[in-house]
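Thanks for the sequence, V.! I ran DDT domain-containing protein right away. Repeating your input here for the record:
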Amino acid sequence: MPLFNKKPFSLMEPPKDLDSKEKVFQIRFTKEIFRDYQEYLKRLNLYRQRVWTCKMSGKTNLTFEEALVSEHNAMEKARSIPTELMAYVLRMTQYSTLGLHELVNKIYANLLEEVFEGIELHANKDGSVVPCKILKILDSDGTKMCEVGWFGREKTLINTSVVKASDLFYRRAPVSRNTLKLFIRDSTTQTTPWVIHENLAKKYGIPVDPPNNIMHKKRRKREENETEDGRKKMKDGDTHVPIKYPIDDLLVRPNADDPALFKRPPLATDFRVPRCSVGDLLMVWDFCSSFGRVLRLSPFPLTDMENAICHKESNVLLVEVHAAIFHLLIKDKGDYFSVLQNKKRKLKVSLVTWTEFLCDFLEMTKSEELSGNIASVRRGYYGLIDTDIKLKILRELVEEAIKTSAIREILSERVDQKQALNATKRESTKKDKEEQSLHTEIAMKNEENQTDAVQDGNESVDELARGKEEKDKNVSRSKTEGKRHRVWHLETEIEKLSIRSSPLGKDRHYNRYWFFRREGRLFVESADFREWGYYSTKEELDALMGSLNVKGIRERALKRQLEKFYNKLSNALEKRTKDIMNKMLLEEGVLRRSTRVRAQPKDNPSMAFLKYVNKWKDN
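Predicted structure:
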Protein backbone atom coordinates (compact mmCIF):
# COMPACT_ATOMS: atom_id res chain seq x y z
CA MET A 1 0.00 0.00 0.00
CA PRO A 2 1.46 3.43 -0.98
CA LEU A 3 2.56 5.75 1.82
CA PHE A 4 0.81 9.11 2.31
CA ASN A 5 3.40 11.79 3.13
CA LYS A 6 5.70 8.82 3.93
CA LYS A 7 3.28 7.42 6.53
CA PRO A 8 1.03 4.31 6.38
CA PHE A 9 -2.39 4.93 4.85
CA SER A 10 -5.68 3.03 5.26
CA LEU A 11 -8.49 2.77 2.72
CA MET A 12 -12.07 3.74 3.59
CA GLU A 13 -14.32 1.02 4.97
CA PRO A 14 -17.41 0.38 2.75
CA PRO A 15 -20.66 2.08 3.90
CA LYS A 16 -22.87 -0.03 6.13
CA ASP A 17 -26.28 -1.37 5.08
CA LEU A 18 -25.74 -0.79 1.37
CA ASP A 19 -28.73 -1.53 -0.80
CA SER A 20 -28.12 -3.33 -4.09
CA LYS A 21 -30.18 -0.68 -5.92
CA GLU A 22 -28.56 2.27 -4.18
CA LYS A 23 -26.60 4.69 -6.39
CA VAL A 24 -22.96 4.93 -5.22
CA PHE A 25 -19.59 6.23 -6.48
CA GLN A 26 -16.56 3.92 -6.68
CA ILE A 27 -12.88 4.76 -7.17
CA ARG A 28 -11.59 2.48 -9.90
CA PHE A 29 -8.13 1.61 -8.55
CA THR A 30 -8.98 1.28 -4.82
CA LYS A 31 -12.55 -0.10 -5.10
CA GLU A 32 -13.63 2.33 -2.34
CA ILE A 33 -17.36 3.12 -2.35
CA PHE A 34 -18.96 6.46 -1.43
CA ARG A 35 -22.58 7.48 -1.03
CA ASP A 36 -21.77 11.20 -1.13
CA TYR A 37 -20.46 12.61 -4.43
CA GLN A 38 -18.52 15.43 -2.73
CA GLU A 39 -16.73 12.91 -0.47
CA TYR A 40 -15.93 10.83 -3.56
CA LEU A 41 -14.44 13.86 -5.35
CA LYS A 42 -12.48 14.89 -2.27
CA ARG A 43 -10.92 11.44 -1.99
CA LEU A 44 -10.23 11.22 -5.72
CA ASN A 45 -8.48 14.61 -5.69
CA LEU A 46 -6.32 13.42 -2.78
CA TYR A 47 -5.23 10.40 -4.85
CA ARG A 48 -4.33 12.67 -7.77
CA GLN A 49 -1.95 14.80 -5.69
CA ARG A 50 1.78 14.04 -5.85
CA VAL A 51 2.13 13.28 -2.15
CA TRP A 52 2.42 9.50 -2.39
CA THR A 53 5.46 7.27 -1.97
CA CYS A 54 6.07 3.77 -3.31
CA LYS A 55 6.55 1.65 -0.18
CA MET A 56 8.79 -0.85 -1.96
CA SER A 57 11.20 1.33 -3.96
CA GLY A 58 10.98 4.60 -2.02
CA LYS A 59 10.03 6.70 -5.08
CA THR A 60 8.39 9.94 -4.00
CA ASN A 61 6.25 12.69 -5.58
CA LEU A 62 3.85 10.17 -7.14
CA THR A 63 0.08 10.06 -7.50
CA PHE A 64 -1.61 7.19 -5.67
CA GLU A 65 -2.11 5.24 -8.90
CA GLU A 66 1.51 5.79 -9.98
CA ALA A 67 2.66 4.57 -6.57
CA LEU A 68 0.50 1.43 -6.97
CA VAL A 69 2.09 0.71 -10.36
CA SER A 70 5.57 1.36 -8.94
CA GLU A 71 4.91 -1.06 -6.07
CA HIS A 72 3.64 -3.68 -8.51
CA ASN A 73 6.79 -3.33 -10.68
CA ALA A 74 9.04 -3.45 -7.61
CA MET A 75 7.33 -6.61 -6.36
CA GLU A 76 7.70 -8.18 -9.80
CA LYS A 77 11.41 -7.43 -9.71
CA ALA A 78 11.68 -8.74 -6.14
CA ARG A 79 10.09 -12.01 -7.21
CA SER A 80 12.44 -12.32 -10.19
CA ILE A 81 15.11 -13.66 -7.86
CA PRO A 82 16.04 -17.22 -8.94
CA THR A 83 13.97 -19.77 -7.04
CA GLU A 84 17.16 -21.73 -6.29
CA LEU A 85 18.38 -18.83 -4.12
CA MET A 86 15.15 -17.98 -2.27
CA ALA A 87 15.51 -20.43 0.63
CA TYR A 88 19.14 -19.39 1.22
CA VAL A 89 18.31 -15.64 1.20
CA LEU A 90 15.27 -16.09 3.45
CA ARG A 91 17.25 -18.23 5.90
CA MET A 92 19.94 -15.53 6.19
CA THR A 93 17.24 -12.87 6.61
CA GLN A 94 15.18 -14.60 9.32
CA TYR A 95 15.86 -12.94 12.70
CA SER A 96 18.91 -11.05 11.42
CA THR A 97 19.58 -7.88 13.44
CA LEU A 98 21.57 -6.16 10.69
CA GLY A 99 20.33 -3.02 8.97
CA LEU A 100 19.01 -3.45 5.42
CA HIS A 101 22.19 -2.11 3.78
CA GLU A 102 24.47 -4.37 5.82
CA LEU A 103 22.18 -7.40 5.38
CA VAL A 104 22.02 -6.97 1.59
CA ASN A 105 25.81 -6.66 1.35
CA LYS A 106 26.34 -9.73 3.53
CA ILE A 107 23.91 -11.89 1.52
CA TYR A 108 25.31 -10.58 -1.79
CA ALA A 109 28.89 -11.44 -0.77
CA ASN A 110 27.86 -14.90 0.47
CA LEU A 111 25.97 -15.70 -2.74
CA LEU A 112 29.12 -15.06 -4.78
CA GLU A 113 30.97 -17.64 -2.65
CA GLU A 114 28.24 -20.31 -2.62
CA VAL A 115 26.98 -22.74 -5.26
CA PHE A 116 23.37 -23.91 -5.74
CA GLU A 117 21.73 -26.64 -7.75
CA GLY A 118 20.12 -25.24 -10.90
CA ILE A 119 22.27 -22.08 -11.03
CA GLU A 120 24.21 -21.18 -14.17
CA LEU A 121 27.83 -20.04 -13.83
CA HIS A 122 31.24 -20.57 -15.46
CA ALA A 123 34.30 -22.79 -15.15
CA ASN A 124 37.60 -23.30 -16.95
CA LYS A 125 37.44 -26.19 -19.43
CA ASP A 126 40.11 -27.12 -21.96
CA GLY A 127 41.88 -23.81 -21.48
CA SER A 128 38.82 -21.57 -21.96
CA VAL A 129 35.95 -20.24 -19.85
CA VAL A 130 32.74 -22.17 -20.55
CA PRO A 131 29.21 -21.60 -19.18
CA CYS A 132 27.65 -24.48 -17.24
CA LYS A 133 24.76 -25.39 -14.97
CA ILE A 134 24.98 -27.16 -11.61
CA LEU A 135 22.94 -30.35 -11.82
CA LYS A 136 23.85 -31.82 -8.45
CA ILE A 137 26.03 -30.91 -5.46
CA LEU A 138 28.14 -33.77 -4.08
CA ASP A 139 30.26 -34.16 -0.95
CA SER A 140 33.49 -36.10 -1.38
CA ASP A 141 35.62 -36.50 1.75
CA GLY A 142 34.81 -32.99 2.94
CA THR A 143 35.45 -31.44 -0.51
CA LYS A 144 32.37 -29.97 -2.16
CA MET A 145 32.04 -31.29 -5.72
CA CYS A 146 29.45 -30.44 -8.36
CA GLU A 147 28.03 -32.37 -11.27
CA VAL A 148 27.67 -29.77 -14.01
CA GLY A 149 26.20 -29.73 -17.47
CA TRP A 150 28.16 -27.82 -20.13
CA PHE A 151 26.31 -25.47 -22.47
CA GLY A 152 26.78 -25.54 -26.23
CA ARG A 153 26.25 -22.74 -28.72
CA GLU A 154 22.45 -22.97 -28.66
CA LYS A 155 22.27 -22.82 -24.86
CA THR A 156 21.69 -26.57 -24.69
CA LEU A 157 23.48 -28.99 -22.36
CA ILE A 158 25.87 -31.09 -24.44
CA ASN A 159 27.68 -33.19 -21.78
CA THR A 160 28.32 -33.44 -18.04
CA SER A 161 31.28 -33.85 -15.71
CA VAL A 162 32.18 -33.47 -12.03
CA VAL A 163 34.26 -30.47 -10.93
CA LYS A 164 35.29 -28.89 -7.64
CA ALA A 165 32.88 -26.25 -6.38
CA SER A 166 35.88 -23.96 -5.80
CA ASP A 167 36.65 -24.05 -9.56
CA LEU A 168 33.24 -22.59 -10.43
CA PHE A 169 32.71 -18.83 -10.58
CA TYR A 170 30.13 -16.23 -11.55
CA ARG A 171 30.84 -13.90 -14.46
CA ARG A 172 27.75 -11.98 -13.38
CA ALA A 173 26.24 -11.97 -9.89
CA PRO A 174 23.20 -14.28 -9.72
CA VAL A 175 21.12 -11.40 -8.35
CA SER A 176 21.68 -7.65 -7.96
CA ARG A 177 21.82 -5.82 -4.64
CA ASN A 178 18.73 -3.82 -5.58
CA THR A 179 16.72 -6.97 -6.28
CA LEU A 180 17.84 -8.42 -2.95
CA LYS A 181 16.74 -5.23 -1.21
CA LEU A 182 13.28 -5.38 -2.79
CA PHE A 183 12.96 -9.12 -2.12
CA ILE A 184 13.79 -8.69 1.58
CA ARG A 185 11.29 -5.84 1.96
CA ASP A 186 8.60 -7.88 0.18
CA SER A 187 9.25 -11.04 2.21
CA THR A 188 9.30 -9.64 5.76
CA THR A 189 6.78 -8.44 8.33
CA GLN A 190 9.19 -6.57 10.63
CA THR A 191 12.71 -5.21 10.53
CA THR A 192 14.24 -5.27 14.03
CA PRO A 193 15.00 -8.14 13.88
CA TRP A 194 13.92 -9.17 10.39
CA VAL A 195 11.04 -11.65 10.43
CA ILE A 196 9.86 -13.30 7.21
CA HIS A 197 6.20 -14.07 6.41
CA GLU A 198 4.96 -17.25 8.06
CA ASN A 199 3.82 -18.78 4.75
CA LEU A 200 7.34 -18.36 3.32
CA ALA A 201 8.92 -19.84 6.45
CA LYS A 202 6.59 -22.84 6.19
CA LYS A 203 7.17 -23.25 2.44
CA TYR A 204 10.98 -23.32 2.75
CA GLY A 205 11.20 -25.08 6.11
CA ILE A 206 12.68 -22.10 7.97
CA PRO A 207 12.26 -22.03 11.79
CA VAL A 208 9.75 -19.47 13.05
CA ASP A 209 10.80 -19.59 16.73
CA PRO A 210 13.27 -16.80 17.63
CA PRO A 211 16.82 -18.02 18.40
CA ASN A 212 18.06 -17.95 21.98
CA ASN A 213 20.09 -14.76 21.52
CA ILE A 214 17.02 -12.87 20.28
CA MET A 215 14.92 -14.20 23.18
CA HIS A 216 17.71 -13.19 25.57
CA LYS A 217 17.76 -9.66 24.12
CA LYS A 218 13.98 -9.41 24.46
CA ARG A 219 14.14 -10.54 28.09
CA ARG A 220 16.97 -8.11 28.77
CA LYS A 221 15.01 -5.30 27.11
CA ARG A 222 11.97 -6.15 29.25
CA GLU A 223 14.15 -6.20 32.37
CA GLU A 224 15.66 -2.83 31.39
CA ASN A 225 12.18 -1.38 30.97
CA GLU A 226 11.13 -2.77 34.34
CA THR A 227 14.29 -1.38 35.93
CA GLU A 228 13.64 2.01 34.32
CA ASP A 229 10.07 2.00 35.66
CA GLY A 230 11.44 1.06 39.08
CA ARG A 231 13.89 3.96 38.98
CA LYS A 232 11.11 6.40 38.19
CA LYS A 233 9.25 5.23 41.27
CA MET A 234 12.28 5.62 43.57
CA LYS A 235 12.26 8.54 45.98
CA ASP A 236 15.05 11.11 45.97
CA GLY A 237 18.02 9.84 47.92
CA ASP A 238 17.40 6.19 47.15
CA THR A 239 20.43 4.34 45.86
CA HIS A 240 20.55 2.95 42.33
CA VAL A 241 23.13 1.47 40.02
CA PRO A 242 24.62 4.24 37.77
CA ILE A 243 24.37 3.76 34.01
CA LYS A 244 27.69 3.12 32.31
CA TYR A 245 27.89 5.14 29.08
CA PRO A 246 27.95 4.90 26.12
CA ILE A 247 24.74 2.90 25.63
CA ASP A 248 22.46 2.43 22.64
CA ASP A 249 21.43 5.91 21.50
CA LEU A 250 17.70 5.16 21.65
CA LEU A 251 18.03 4.31 25.38
CA VAL A 252 19.69 7.64 26.26
CA ARG A 253 17.43 9.85 28.39
CA PRO A 254 17.99 13.59 29.01
CA ASN A 255 19.54 14.50 32.35
CA ALA A 256 19.56 17.85 34.11
CA ASP A 257 23.35 17.70 34.41
CA ASP A 258 23.90 17.07 30.69
CA PRO A 259 25.64 19.83 28.69
CA ALA A 260 23.28 21.72 26.39
CA LEU A 261 23.20 20.29 22.86
CA PHE A 262 22.82 22.38 19.72
CA LYS A 263 19.69 22.09 17.61
CA ARG A 264 20.50 19.88 14.63
CA PRO A 265 20.54 21.99 11.43
CA PRO A 266 17.99 21.12 8.71
CA LEU A 267 19.27 19.26 5.65
CA ALA A 268 19.35 20.80 2.20
CA THR A 269 17.43 18.65 -0.31
CA ASP A 270 17.61 20.72 -3.49
CA PHE A 271 18.76 17.85 -5.70
CA ARG A 272 17.77 17.89 -9.36
CA VAL A 273 17.50 14.11 -9.44
CA PRO A 274 14.76 12.35 -7.39
CA ARG A 275 15.89 12.05 -3.76
CA CYS A 276 15.51 8.28 -3.88
CA SER A 277 18.03 8.24 -6.77
CA VAL A 278 20.76 10.32 -5.11
CA GLY A 279 22.50 7.16 -3.89
CA ASP A 280 22.76 5.87 -7.47
CA LEU A 281 24.09 9.25 -8.65
CA LEU A 282 26.80 9.26 -5.96
CA MET A 283 27.75 5.64 -6.62
CA VAL A 284 28.20 6.18 -10.37
CA TRP A 285 30.09 9.47 -9.96
CA ASP A 286 32.36 8.09 -7.24
CA PHE A 287 33.19 5.03 -9.38
CA CYS A 288 34.06 7.22 -12.38
CA SER A 289 36.19 9.48 -10.16
CA SER A 290 37.97 6.61 -8.40
CA PHE A 291 38.78 4.57 -11.51
CA GLY A 292 39.09 7.36 -14.07
CA ARG A 293 42.57 6.26 -15.19
CA VAL A 294 41.62 2.70 -16.06
CA LEU A 295 38.39 3.96 -17.66
CA ARG A 296 40.33 6.60 -19.65
CA LEU A 297 37.78 9.11 -18.33
CA SER A 298 38.99 12.48 -17.04
CA PRO A 299 37.31 13.74 -13.83
CA PHE A 300 34.24 15.98 -13.69
CA PRO A 301 32.27 17.61 -10.82
CA LEU A 302 29.25 15.89 -9.26
CA THR A 303 27.06 18.86 -10.21
CA ASP A 304 27.99 18.39 -13.87
CA MET A 305 27.00 14.73 -13.64
CA GLU A 306 23.68 15.67 -12.03
CA ASN A 307 22.91 18.36 -14.62
CA ALA A 308 23.91 16.04 -17.48
CA ILE A 309 21.66 13.20 -16.27
CA CYS A 310 18.69 15.60 -15.96
CA HIS A 311 19.27 17.12 -19.42
CA LYS A 312 16.55 16.18 -21.90
CA GLU A 313 18.99 15.64 -24.73
CA SER A 314 21.92 13.29 -25.21
CA ASN A 315 25.14 15.08 -24.20
CA VAL A 316 28.85 14.42 -24.49
CA LEU A 317 29.46 13.85 -20.75
CA LEU A 318 26.95 11.00 -20.51
CA VAL A 319 28.10 9.55 -23.83
CA GLU A 320 31.73 9.49 -22.60
CA VAL A 321 30.72 7.84 -19.29
CA HIS A 322 28.75 5.11 -21.07
CA ALA A 323 31.44 4.62 -23.73
CA ALA A 324 34.21 4.34 -21.11
CA ILE A 325 32.36 1.55 -19.28
CA PHE A 326 31.46 -0.22 -22.55
CA HIS A 327 35.13 -0.24 -23.56
CA LEU A 328 36.07 -1.69 -20.16
CA LEU A 329 33.47 -4.48 -20.50
CA ILE A 330 34.63 -5.23 -24.05
CA LYS A 331 38.28 -5.53 -22.98
CA ASP A 332 37.25 -7.92 -20.20
CA LYS A 333 35.78 -10.31 -22.82
CA GLY A 334 32.97 -11.42 -20.50
CA ASP A 335 29.23 -11.86 -21.05
CA TYR A 336 28.79 -8.44 -22.66
CA PHE A 337 31.63 -9.13 -25.08
CA SER A 338 29.94 -12.43 -26.04
CA VAL A 339 26.67 -10.62 -26.73
CA LEU A 340 28.44 -8.18 -29.06
CA GLN A 341 30.25 -11.01 -30.85
CA ASN A 342 27.00 -12.89 -31.43
CA LYS A 343 25.58 -9.73 -33.00
CA LYS A 344 28.80 -9.26 -35.01
CA ARG A 345 29.01 -5.74 -33.66
CA LYS A 346 32.08 -3.62 -34.53
CA LEU A 347 33.82 -3.00 -31.21
CA LYS A 348 34.28 0.75 -31.62
CA VAL A 349 32.00 2.89 -29.43
CA SER A 350 31.47 6.39 -30.85
CA LEU A 351 29.15 9.36 -30.44
CA VAL A 352 27.00 7.84 -33.17
CA THR A 353 27.00 4.15 -32.20
CA TRP A 354 26.94 4.33 -28.39
CA THR A 355 23.15 3.85 -28.21
CA GLU A 356 23.46 0.52 -30.06
CA PHE A 357 25.87 -0.71 -27.36
CA LEU A 358 23.46 0.59 -24.70
CA CYS A 359 20.56 -1.36 -26.21
CA ASP A 360 22.70 -4.53 -26.29
CA PHE A 361 23.45 -4.07 -22.58
CA LEU A 362 19.80 -3.42 -21.71
CA GLU A 363 18.83 -6.66 -23.46
CA MET A 364 21.49 -8.50 -21.46
CA THR A 365 20.22 -7.22 -18.08
CA LYS A 366 16.94 -9.13 -18.41
CA SER A 367 15.30 -6.38 -16.34
CA GLU A 368 11.89 -5.37 -17.68
CA GLU A 369 12.15 -1.98 -16.00
CA LEU A 370 15.37 -1.23 -17.93
CA SER A 371 14.85 -3.18 -21.16
CA GLY A 372 11.46 -1.49 -21.57
CA ASN A 373 13.37 1.64 -22.65
CA ILE A 374 15.17 0.02 -25.61
CA ALA A 375 12.64 1.33 -28.14
CA SER A 376 13.05 4.91 -26.86
CA VAL A 377 16.86 4.67 -27.05
CA ARG A 378 16.75 3.27 -30.60
CA ARG A 379 14.48 6.10 -31.75
CA GLY A 380 16.99 8.63 -30.40
CA TYR A 381 14.96 9.61 -27.32
CA TYR A 382 17.45 8.59 -24.63
CA GLY A 383 17.32 12.11 -23.16
CA LEU A 384 13.58 11.79 -22.50
CA ILE A 385 13.93 8.64 -20.35
CA ASP A 386 13.08 9.26 -16.67
CA THR A 387 16.08 10.43 -14.67
CA ASP A 388 15.79 7.63 -12.11
CA ILE A 389 15.84 5.03 -14.93
CA LYS A 390 18.95 6.61 -16.49
CA LEU A 391 20.69 6.30 -13.12
CA LYS A 392 19.53 2.70 -12.64
CA ILE A 393 21.01 1.84 -16.04
CA LEU A 394 24.32 3.45 -15.05
CA ARG A 395 24.25 1.68 -11.69
CA GLU A 396 23.83 -1.67 -13.46
CA LEU A 397 26.75 -0.78 -15.75
CA VAL A 398 28.94 0.10 -12.76
CA GLU A 399 28.03 -3.13 -10.93
CA GLU A 400 29.04 -5.04 -14.07
CA ALA A 401 32.26 -3.01 -14.41
CA ILE A 402 33.29 -3.71 -10.80
CA LYS A 403 33.43 -7.43 -11.62
CA THR A 404 35.93 -7.00 -14.49
CA SER A 405 39.47 -8.26 -14.03
CA ALA A 406 40.94 -4.77 -14.62
CA ILE A 407 39.02 -3.24 -11.70
CA ARG A 408 39.58 -6.27 -9.47
CA GLU A 409 43.35 -6.07 -10.07
CA ILE A 410 43.36 -2.40 -9.08
CA LEU A 411 41.32 -3.18 -5.97
CA SER A 412 43.71 -5.97 -5.04
CA GLU A 413 46.76 -3.72 -5.56
CA ARG A 414 45.23 -0.94 -3.47
CA VAL A 415 44.40 -3.37 -0.66
CA ASP A 416 48.00 -4.62 -0.61
CA GLN A 417 49.43 -1.09 -0.72
CA LYS A 418 47.05 0.10 1.99
CA GLN A 419 47.96 -2.81 4.24
CA ALA A 420 51.67 -2.08 3.72
CA LEU A 421 51.19 1.61 4.56
CA ASN A 422 49.12 0.74 7.65
CA ALA A 423 51.89 -1.63 8.77
CA THR A 424 54.45 1.18 8.26
CA LYS A 425 52.23 3.56 10.24
CA ARG A 426 51.88 1.06 13.09
CA GLU A 427 55.66 0.50 13.16
CA SER A 428 56.28 4.25 13.10
CA THR A 429 53.82 4.80 15.97
CA LYS A 430 55.44 2.01 18.00
CA LYS A 431 58.92 3.49 17.42
CA ASP A 432 57.68 6.98 18.39
CA LYS A 433 56.26 5.63 21.66
CA GLU A 434 59.56 3.89 22.47
CA GLU A 435 61.49 7.11 21.73
CA GLN A 436 59.07 9.12 23.86
CA SER A 437 59.47 6.68 26.74
CA LEU A 438 63.29 6.88 26.46
CA HIS A 439 63.18 10.68 26.29
CA THR A 440 61.01 10.81 29.44
CA GLU A 441 63.44 8.52 31.25
CA ILE A 442 66.44 10.69 30.26
CA ALA A 443 64.59 13.85 31.32
CA MET A 444 63.87 12.35 34.75
CA LYS A 445 67.55 11.43 35.21
CA ASN A 446 68.63 14.96 34.21
CA GLU A 447 66.18 16.37 36.74
CA GLU A 448 67.62 14.11 39.45
CA ASN A 449 71.18 15.21 38.56
CA GLN A 450 70.09 18.83 38.61
CA THR A 451 68.56 18.42 42.06
CA ASP A 452 71.72 16.77 43.38
CA ALA A 453 73.82 19.62 41.95
CA VAL A 454 71.72 22.27 43.68
CA GLN A 455 71.95 20.40 46.97
CA ASP A 456 75.74 20.30 46.58
CA GLY A 457 75.83 24.03 45.86
CA ASN A 458 77.38 23.41 42.47
CA GLU A 459 75.81 26.26 40.47
CA SER A 460 77.98 25.77 37.38
CA VAL A 461 76.81 22.16 37.06
CA ASP A 462 73.27 23.41 37.52
CA GLU A 463 73.66 25.91 34.69
CA LEU A 464 75.13 23.25 32.41
CA ALA A 465 72.21 20.93 33.17
CA ARG A 466 69.71 23.68 32.37
CA GLY A 467 71.48 24.45 29.10
CA LYS A 468 71.53 20.78 28.16
CA GLU A 469 67.84 20.48 29.03
CA GLU A 470 66.97 23.47 26.82
CA LYS A 471 69.01 21.99 23.97
CA ASP A 472 67.28 18.61 24.40
CA LYS A 473 63.89 20.35 24.25
CA ASN A 474 64.77 22.03 20.94
CA VAL A 475 65.99 18.69 19.42
CA SER A 476 62.79 16.99 20.76
CA ARG A 477 60.55 19.71 19.27
CA SER A 478 62.20 19.24 15.87
CA LYS A 479 61.73 15.46 16.07
CA THR A 480 58.06 15.87 17.07
CA GLU A 481 57.40 18.06 14.04
CA GLY A 482 59.10 15.49 11.81
CA LYS A 483 57.01 12.67 13.29
CA ARG A 484 53.79 14.61 12.78
CA HIS A 485 54.69 15.28 9.17
CA ARG A 486 55.52 11.59 8.62
CA VAL A 487 52.21 10.44 10.13
CA TRP A 488 50.29 13.03 8.10
CA HIS A 489 52.02 11.85 4.92
CA LEU A 490 51.18 8.19 5.67
CA GLU A 491 47.52 9.03 6.39
CA THR A 492 47.29 11.02 3.15
CA GLU A 493 48.73 8.14 1.14
CA ILE A 494 46.37 5.66 2.83
CA GLU A 495 43.39 7.88 2.02
CA LYS A 496 44.44 8.08 -1.64
CA LEU A 497 44.24 4.27 -1.77
CA SER A 498 40.71 4.23 -0.40
CA ILE A 499 38.85 1.60 -2.43
CA ARG A 500 35.32 2.74 -1.85
CA SER A 501 33.71 5.51 0.13
CA SER A 502 32.08 4.27 3.31
CA PRO A 503 29.94 6.22 5.79
CA LEU A 504 31.67 8.18 8.51
CA GLY A 505 29.10 6.87 10.95
CA LYS A 506 25.45 6.88 12.01
CA ASP A 507 23.37 9.10 14.26
CA ARG A 508 20.81 8.16 16.90
CA HIS A 509 18.22 7.17 14.29
CA TYR A 510 20.66 5.16 12.10
CA ASN A 511 20.94 7.87 9.42
CA ARG A 512 24.30 7.45 7.65
CA TYR A 513 26.78 10.30 7.03
CA TRP A 514 28.91 10.23 3.87
CA PHE A 515 31.85 12.34 2.74
CA PHE A 516 33.48 12.03 -0.68
CA ARG A 517 37.03 13.29 -1.18
CA ARG A 518 36.22 15.15 -4.39
CA GLU A 519 32.90 16.72 -3.30
CA GLY A 520 32.59 19.53 -0.74
CA ARG A 521 29.39 18.37 0.93
CA LEU A 522 28.51 16.09 3.85
CA PHE A 523 25.71 13.82 2.64
CA VAL A 524 23.13 12.20 4.92
CA GLU A 525 21.26 9.02 3.92
CA SER A 526 18.11 8.03 5.81
CA ALA A 527 17.97 4.71 7.66
CA ASP A 528 15.54 3.26 5.09
CA PHE A 529 17.86 4.25 2.16
CA ARG A 530 15.05 6.28 0.54
CA GLU A 531 15.90 9.88 1.39
CA TRP A 532 19.04 12.00 1.05
CA GLY A 533 20.08 15.45 2.15
CA TYR A 534 23.34 17.32 2.74
CA TYR A 535 25.21 19.96 4.72
CA SER A 536 27.31 22.43 2.77
CA THR A 537 28.74 24.99 5.23
CA LYS A 538 31.24 24.95 8.08
CA GLU A 539 28.61 26.47 10.36
CA GLU A 540 26.26 23.55 9.68
CA LEU A 541 29.09 21.08 10.36
CA ASP A 542 29.82 22.78 13.72
CA ALA A 543 26.12 22.76 14.66
CA LEU A 544 25.81 19.10 13.70
CA MET A 545 28.80 18.15 15.86
CA GLY A 546 27.36 20.17 18.76
CA SER A 547 24.05 18.30 18.44
CA LEU A 548 25.52 14.81 18.82
CA ASN A 549 25.01 13.15 22.20
CA VAL A 550 28.18 11.27 23.15
CA LYS A 551 26.25 9.16 25.67
CA GLY A 552 24.99 7.14 22.69
CA ILE A 553 27.23 4.56 20.98
CA ARG A 554 26.48 5.65 17.42
CA GLU A 555 26.63 9.42 17.93
CA ARG A 556 29.82 9.14 20.01
CA ALA A 557 31.52 7.18 17.20
CA LEU A 558 30.20 9.62 14.56
CA LYS A 559 31.44 12.65 16.50
CA ARG A 560 34.90 11.12 16.83
CA GLN A 561 35.07 10.58 13.08
CA LEU A 562 33.89 14.14 12.39
CA GLU A 563 36.53 15.46 14.81
CA LYS A 564 39.21 13.29 13.19
CA PHE A 565 38.44 14.65 9.71
CA TYR A 566 37.31 18.11 10.85
CA ASN A 567 40.01 20.11 9.05
CA LYS A 568 39.52 18.17 5.82
CA LEU A 569 35.73 18.49 6.01
CA SER A 570 35.65 22.20 6.90
CA ASN A 571 38.23 23.07 4.22
CA ALA A 572 36.20 21.18 1.58
CA LEU A 573 32.96 22.88 2.66
CA GLU A 574 34.55 26.35 2.61
CA LYS A 575 36.17 25.73 -0.78
CA ARG A 576 32.81 24.71 -2.26
CA THR A 577 31.16 27.82 -0.77
CA LYS A 578 33.79 30.03 -2.45
CA ASP A 579 33.37 28.18 -5.76
CA ILE A 580 29.60 28.73 -5.62
CA MET A 581 30.10 32.45 -4.97
CA ASN A 582 32.42 32.67 -7.98
CA LYS A 583 29.86 30.84 -10.15
CA MET A 584 27.11 33.21 -8.97
CA LEU A 585 29.26 36.18 -9.97
CA LEU A 586 29.89 34.51 -13.33
CA GLU A 587 26.15 33.89 -13.84
CA GLU A 588 25.45 37.50 -12.94
CA GLY A 589 27.99 38.56 -15.57
CA VAL A 590 26.27 36.31 -18.13
CA LEU A 591 22.88 37.88 -17.32
CA ARG A 592 24.25 41.42 -17.68
CA ARG A 593 25.92 40.53 -20.94
CA SER A 594 22.76 38.89 -22.27
CA THR A 595 20.88 42.20 -22.00
CA ARG A 596 23.23 43.58 -24.61
CA VAL A 597 24.31 40.48 -26.54
CA ARG A 598 22.49 37.17 -26.71
CA ALA A 599 24.62 34.83 -24.58
CA GLN A 600 25.27 31.24 -25.61
CA PRO A 601 23.63 28.58 -23.36
CA LYS A 602 27.03 26.99 -22.67
CA ASP A 603 28.13 30.21 -20.93
CA ASN A 604 25.78 29.39 -18.04
CA PRO A 605 27.71 27.48 -15.29
CA SER A 606 24.72 25.13 -14.83
CA MET A 607 25.31 24.03 -18.44
CA ALA A 608 29.06 23.55 -17.98
CA PHE A 609 28.68 19.82 -18.64
CA LEU A 610 28.05 20.65 -22.32
CA LYS A 611 31.68 21.80 -22.53
CA TYR A 612 33.10 18.58 -21.11
CA VAL A 613 36.13 17.21 -22.95
CA ASN A 614 37.52 13.79 -22.03
CA LYS A 615 41.23 14.59 -21.82
CA TRP A 616 42.18 11.01 -20.93
CA LYS A 617 40.38 9.41 -23.84
CA ASP A 618 42.32 6.67 -25.59
CA ASN A 619 42.11 7.53 -29.26
